[in-house]
Fold each of these.
Amino acid sequence: MTANKGSKFWLALVIFSLTGQIAWVVENMYFNVFLYEMFHATPAQISAMVSASAVSAAVTTLLIGALSDKLGKRKVFICGGYILWGLSICAFSLLRVDVIGALFPAAVSASAIGVTLTIVMDCVMTFFGSSANDACFNAWLTDSTDDRNRGAAEGINAMMPLVAILAVFGGFMAFDLSKAKSWTAIFLIIGIAVIVIGAAGWFLIRESASPIDENSSCLRNLVYSFRPTVIREHRTLYLCLLAFAIFGISIQIFMPYLILYYTEALGMTDYVLIMAPAVILAAAFTAFYGRWYDRIGFRRAVVPSRLLLMAGYVVLYFCRTTLPVFAGSLLMMCGYLSGMAVFGAVVRQYTPVGKAGMFQGLRIIGQVLVPGIIGPAIGAAVLKNADTVVNSDGTVSFIPNVNIYAAALGVALCLLVLLLPLMHYMKKGETANVQN
């Protein structure tokens, strides 16, 4: 029985999900700022970093997810992975122009080397993070929930990115992000926190009941979710993942540039104070939305969340002043996080029992890889002719503009079109199950 979970389960869910999301927020939202501030990165370089990280996440999740299914173990990968993840984050404290200049005195541009090293280390960090969080923590969560509590658990899991954003925004208020010493402190603080949580996991996490298939092999597990027979048998799952991917593309068009848009395009130096209430409200909304999903299901919950997201895009496209930007950001964040809850829950719902690890790689392909490659590429394309500003050292930086929201809205409209046949197909499947 998994309906009534103990307090230790919910505590482990909250702290591991939150800590993992804090690390991902630093990567997904602030590595872009780090590249921009420290090494004057271009939109193409930011897009390259996001894409490389997405590929690393997908490959890692496929491999480690299959391995964890073969071994029937999640806990060791989660706890050990978090510790190594934290160490790799700490290593970013060494990525400074002065350190790079000392190590490569003959280099023409320390900034160019800094961009390259950041992308490479981002992939290393993603390997450990995806092993621990994407592959094994998410498989553990799938193993540990069922239809009676999956929406509630996913509501908590899905709201953690916004709680993490709030924690990071609030924590980063004390730092001047244009100074290298601030980034050194940030990476050490976040890295050490992830290490501590990884160590605590040995006492908090109870190994999930993941069955071991003695006849399986890592290679069979790795390719299982790509077999044509499996795709035909679980067609609804693959259609949901396709919709999840299109949703993710819409998000990734603007998300790598969100903070830069607030600070550089709108000049909101106090954007943290503006965004914090929106984050809190959206996080609370997502928690309730996850519980609502448990009562009404995917087909009735998915469209309202998409409409909220699209309304946020429209407001952010047309508005520049504080209150309307706050309103647009709130709508966008509510739609984003409730969408993550809805798609995350439905993917878990249709994941075959006992094969959660094998399908985590497929989930990451839909949730991370495809959006992480296509979304930032679209964002870079629409910002290709963006206005620029000359920095004090003579370098040039771009200024994000509202075209990222127009492009994101276009992809969101495509998602609405796809949802109509998907919901019709799901309804037919439910009718067939009742008749059988």
Note: The domain at 10-435 is CATH 1.20.1250.20 (Growth Hormone; Chain: A;).
Amino acid sequence: MQNSFRAARTALKVAAFVTLLASGSALQAQAQSIVQLPAGFKIEKVVGGLTYPTSITWDDRGQMYVAEAGGAFLEEAAPARIVRIENGRAIEVANLGQKGIMAAVTGLAWNRGAFYFTHRDSRDRTGAVSRMTPDGRVTMLFSGIIDSQTDHQPNDIRVGPDGRMYVTSGAGGNSAVMGQDMLPFITKNPETRTTSARDIVLTGQNFQTPDFRTPQQGDTVLTGAFVPFGTPTTPGQVIKGRTKSGGTILVFDPNNAEATLRPYAWGFRNVIGLAWNRQGEMFATQNGYDVFGSRPVKDEYDPTYRVREGAWYGWPDFSAALEPLTDPKFTPPGQLMAPVFVNGVMQEKKLGFLIDHAASGLTPPDKSLIAGLHPVNSSPSKPDIAPASWGDMAGQLFVPEWGDMAWVTNALRDKPAGNRIVRIDPATRRLEAFATNLKPGPASEQGAPGRGIERPFDVKFGPDGAMYIVDFGQHKINMARIADGKLPFEWPPNTGGVWKVTRG
């Protein structure tokens, strides 16, 4: 009896010691986090070791799922997957690559007992949306978004308050002109181009750039807007609108997607994420211009917009703040600009309109549609609206800022932008930091990989009222890739994860 008591007492001591160790480890891990939050909030890692995670959703039972993109810009070795998150582990539900799905899977939503996701069509790299039922059967609902053959794939997919589904589609290229910056994509799809949701009339500006298609060094070519690389345009030329267009928010009935698909709003650059408040008002985030390519733009901001059905948001002729790009403040240094010709006559080195607005029936975009302005190159991504349980922050937009691409997309950038979560009060349009690292920039560049924010891409409030942050993972520059005809970016695998933010 005494031995049993002694054994029990020893077991209790051991258990208490193990509990103390676990508690100490947890406290140590919490102390090591470099994420800064407002007083009264705490953050914890739900799962790590993910590769290119982009989206989070929950099924009808409250089970959490995450989409892994399968690649960043072009197809990569890592498979596109849907994983279920349980007890800090990612359990594969579907290897989408084995089901014929091409990267990048950038949007994921659960609706009517099935997963809906955005991706590229493996046959021609155009943008597509597919559905997967719980038994693993995949059905492509539509494809054919030509712009997705470039660096801007279809992004978010969400169910609106009206029960219809909405998709964000990035426009092809930086500012509607296919240039040398699009070399990896043009090589694979020579006819790729920027598209428009409505008929537009061009001003006939053509940009002279080196012709990488010929072996003769020094060869140049003229390329206009909304046409394939090496194709000049003329003043008054009409570009026909397409339903499956880039730079557009598309809407469809999931019961009959192809027949009901149509543009909801257009004239965006790389429109990323969507959210609705309790009043049914829609908001969208956009990644703005780069100081890069044949038509670089020195913009001042990246935007979050209110979305009005049928509205044109000004791209590629207006800034993030919906100001005309003909304002000299948007013109980059002359050495970064390509020579411009109209009807064979060289123009002054300054930004001009690509679209004849009067002939196209377009008026300047409404500045009241600006919900908030982010630092340029911060790359606002997929936002959500805080629920009532968040008290005085309820109804505010929480937006992940994915971050800049260093000097590659903006030779004028001198400090990091993004790599944080911000909140916007729609009533005031004021933007405030909510979750940031100890210093600006990704955690891995602060000697804290895995202990802070890298590239946050999705924010969603879960069924439990907590905020969940999907972090894409680390990013590196590798100039050696250019010689192989690739973009100079690397994305180390297994560096992504999901964070959870709650009130402390």
Note: The first strand starts at residue 41 and ends at 50.
